[in-house]
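Appendix C reproduces, verbatim, an entry submitted by the partner laboratory led by Prof. M.T., so that reviewers can inspect both the input and the predicted structure.
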Amino acid sequence: MQLCIPHEEDMIRLGMSLASLLKGDEIIYLQGELGAGKTTLVRGILKGLGFEGRVTSPTFTLMNVYDSHPPVYHCDFYRLEGGDLTDLGLEDYLGKKGITIIEWPEIGASDLPQDALIINIELVDGDYDRERMVMIRASGPDHSKLLEELTAHVHISH
């Protein structure tokens, strides 16, 4: 699935659309350069789940836990050196009793589950003031069904 997201509000709406389909055992990988809109998408997901608090990037904390329903575990691996996730205790969160969202999953790819929804957000012509191209794909059977539902559900211009 490929979408053109013209404005920040549209990224929020995409997140809200995705949130309406989440049950609480999903893993979402967010890829894209710094400032592409990954945390904005997470804000939309949390808004769609009814969370009213502040949503920030976990770049320096590695993980933010949001008390939404279901809970969201928002991770950012950007600052991890060497990509070693063994000491993080991540297995306590991955797909269990909540939604795990990981920014920069490529840094710890060998330690992460393969069954996930993968969202790549790209700048158009490297311009932060322009629209974003969002490519969404699924790896694995559980998230393939989610992608099918999202494709039928999303109402942002393609």
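The chain has a mean pLDDT of 87. Additional entries are available on request from the coordinating office.
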